[in-house]
Amino acid sequence: MNLDRRQFLHRAGLGTLAVAGAGALGACGGGDTSSDGTMTLDFPTWQGDEAGVKTWWRQAIASFQQTHPKVTIKLQQVPFATYTDTLTSRFSAGKAPDIVHLPTTTFGSFAAQGWLANLDDRLKGTDILGNWTKVQKTMMWDGHNVGLLVLGYAPVLYYNEKLLKDAGVAVPTTFPELIAAAAKLTSGGVYGYGATTTSHPGTYSEATWMVYGAGGGWSAGEKLRFTDPAVVKAMDDYRTLARYSPKGVPSEQKRTLFFDGKIAMMIEGPFVYAGLDKAAASVKSHVKLAKAPFVQQPGYPSNSIHVSTQASKKKADMAWEFIKSLTTPQTQASYAQLYGVPSPRRGAVTQAMIDKRPELGLFQSVTDSAVDATPDNKDIVTNFSEVQKLIMDACVRLQTSSTPTATVMADLQNKVNGAIK
Amino acid sequence: MTDLTAAGRGVRRRGPRTRWGRLRERGYPYALLSPPALLVLGLIAYPVVLVVEMSLRDGRAMNISAIGQEPWSISNYVDVLTDGDTYHSLWITALYTVISTFLSLLIGLGTALLLSRDMPARRLLRTLILVPWAVPGVVASVVFLFMLDGSYGVVNWILRSVGLTEHGPQWYFDPSTALAAVIAPTVWKGFPFFTLILLAALQAIPDELYEAARVDGASAAARFRYITWPAIRGTTVLGIILTGLWTFHTFDLIYPLTGGGPDGATETWAIRIYTEAFSFFHPGSASALGILSVVLALVVVASVFPIMRKQFF
Amino acid sequence: MASTRAAAGSGRRRGITFVVTAVVAAIVIFPVYWMIVGALLPTSITLSTDPPLIPTHGLTLHAFVQDLTARPVAHWMLNSLIVTAAVSVISMVISLLAGYSLSRFSGVGPTSVGYTLLLARMLPGTMLSIPLFVVFGKLGLIDSLGSLILADITITVPFTTWMLKSFIDSVPRELEQAAMIDGTTRLGALVRVVMPLTLPGLGATAVYAAILSWSDLLFARTLITNPDGWTMPVGVTSFIGAHDIDWSGMLAAGTLSMIPMIVLFVLLEPMLVRGLTSGATKG
What we know:
The structure holds 3 protein chains of 3 kinds. Chain B is mainly alpha-helical. Chain B contains 13 helices and no strands. Chain B is flat and about 75 Å long. Chain C has 2 domains: 2-46; 62-282, Orthogonal Bundle (MetI-like fold). Chains B and C meet through helix 1, helix 2, helix 4, helix 5 and helix 6 of B and helix 1, helix 4, helix 5, helix 6 and helix 7 of C. Chain C: One of its GO terms (biological process) is transmembrane transport. Chain C: This is ABC transporter permease. Chain C: Pfam families: BPD_transp_1.
């Protein structure tokens, strides 16, 4: 990351020149391939620092560069908090990255802008679609695959065996049992359940799991379902669980508290399991996993990879080559191994791997049996960030006020209606 | 002696003699103004025109360079003005701006009055009190986020230690305290500007005025009312306008802390504009809101401008 | 006798003033102090139910070392310094020229430019960032520090121009006219006669522009999308990850980011007090 002299002069010079009105001079570089045939692909991601998966990305890039010696893939770490804004800016200025990595929550807005290239023809010649997770369905836009799902998962129940035993509570298998257990476990500085209790995207994920896990959903095609009795009931349960949670904590902090032994149970994605390494020694051996006590397992897309419609033919081709290199059985097996999550490629997680890491078996089986927990209403998907914010606001209201759940949900339905029309 | 002659000559030959000289003389204001004029045209006027255009185009394409293909429409203004959230957010903006500015003024005036007195180590104390002004807004945000953590922050610890509360407020989590919790760093970073300008105004008041008042037996309150206040009134108005505009536009002391949440409790217009454009992909509504906020600022400032003009320009 | 009593009285007054002011200063500076403490201690100590107000052990420079070796904090700092220096210098030049012109000439041209500058102060930065993004996108300047410099100037110049204008108002016209009669051009008179007399104003301009551009987060995060071009404020926010927050690292970066501004402030502060208020106090 050192700024060498040339770069420094380039930049300092740019400033001066720009002020002199010679703005166009800034547009140097930017060609597809330089004269010696080398090519650089731009790859911003928020996972460049994330334990486990960062190693996987770097290995995948290194092995791709080995087989494509003239190609350099430039991984740029962008913090998650500013990731979507940064990418939005780049796309709207016509400076999209060559390899587009998206958190699936923003997928709809980007697809609606026509920024993601149709991959149907490219996928046709491969074995990918036949072997991929069914959550890949969320990547369909106007009947075409415009991306490839990198991770889809179903959350599981994490619990502290010792805390449960001490309180004489059995591992809950239904939602009423979960709530009763959370209530009983909350005492003496320990919280029975860990929910995200602040304005944070984590509340959206959790609310979505609760609603879809209870057999409900945010929408049924055109129709919004925020006021359905089943949805209201699920949100009310979520509200009750939050009462047995520490207040004002974002997802990150509640995970830390769980691994510190201050929270007895939480429903979380498989990637959280990596945090066990940092857990307090006295807690580590007590952390256990179970199937979450849902009626049905909510399958939740996490992130996906795309080719930009702004890329030149050459760069788009090369970006696809890179994406394809990620889908081989070996690379997919190493994804599960390094990151500890189910791999989207069926059969990539072998029995031998499960024997070594039993949690992988649970993660894979709940994911395989999961139903799709993304709203099927296209207007919601297109306006996702707005709808997500409205749902987050509603969660905050449920957690901080005494307004009846049905009222909050009716208000939410109105607001969502206004936002997507 | 030479000075006198020069001045005398100046009186006789006011203005250049030749036509070229006159032309050049008339061209000077434009030559000198051309850098700021270019800046104004290129970086202020053109963007404003673009914003006005964006606010009047229907559709929601984020490819802003292609905005010209969308049809003209006032739907963005209709959307913004019929949205109840706009008014809620206007109320938040008003509360945030007025309270922050008022508290900054109070603390700024108090510290300026203190610092204008004679005391040991005055220069050091002055610098310490002015330091927050030099702290980048985002750093101030981060520090307050750290200090005001609901469960483990030092502020709640202090409140608990002195027995003020049992648990302490969940500052940035609870909609009823979040606004106060973003006003705190705003005032902290904003008041030293008042200290600075009021201090200079106070120092310009001749000591003899106070001496004379004291001889006449005027009370401290009367001295403030009749000597200090008239001398700093203009500066105060100027400071209120500048700080008011600054808080009205603040981004870096709100967005990193709450992003406008929880549940819209800290969503000022400035934050709303950003969210509409960069999170919701509504450049049209964002622009309409931007134009409305310029109009609002103009109306408010124009109503106090006569005072400011007399005192400052 | 009377005079010694008065002296003693004023001594006590000085003492009381000092104590009160020192207490106020301590409260004001506490967040900065706590930031430094947070940078020197692990979060397990500072973010706890019983944090030590005056820590005595466990202090470590680890976060600073980590920032400077494992993270590109020095690189962000360099970017910030380039931007800040350029914005300060350019703001001084432009506002001196424009302020002079507004002070000495009347007419439609100067006046309209002057008022447009005032209007610019009414624009919310969050709104300005959208079209600036488009303009710089067209010029191919996105991701260059040049775009950041230009954007920051649009915020600083409107204020500093009017500030310098009121400053130049107080410089007698006769001085430069005398110089011009002696054969100097108007520009020469501006540089040789007016400029030296407006030094405090220029100093205030430099500090004001520096503080503003040094702390800018909005433009830096919209106009610079490539991490190589990040400035300190953007860098500071990057310590908030998807899964956790590196508090010590972030607070250490925050501490480092204050140092250049404090130095500038201490050096130029006396000028600042005079410079910012020349106009305000003369009225």
